[in-house]
Amino acid sequence: xxxxxxxxxxxxxxxxxxxxxxxxxxxxxxxxxxxxxxxxxxxxxxxxxxxxxxxxxxxxxxxxxxxxxxxxxxxxxxxxxxxxxxxxxxxxxxxx
Length: 96
What we know:
By secondary structure, this protein is of the alpha+beta class. 38% of the residues lie in helices and 19% in strands. The protein has one domain (4-95). Helix 1 (21-34) crosses helix 2.
């Protein structure tokens, strides 16, 4: 069984889910490498586009499932206070 890591969801406080640790860490590191600390920040689509080339091909062949992982990590980092959601249209994010 692959290593798992517990993730939170800013939309459901107090609830955690277990996900693949390797994929989570790879996506988290890629996202934190591309998300700025200052506004205006990046949209979820921009984060995905910029993070995708930084992902290991072995875990994300051809970028497969990267969209799901961006959302998973985004919600977890928001719950942990590492990402800030800005009320723009579309939503933008910066590091906290």
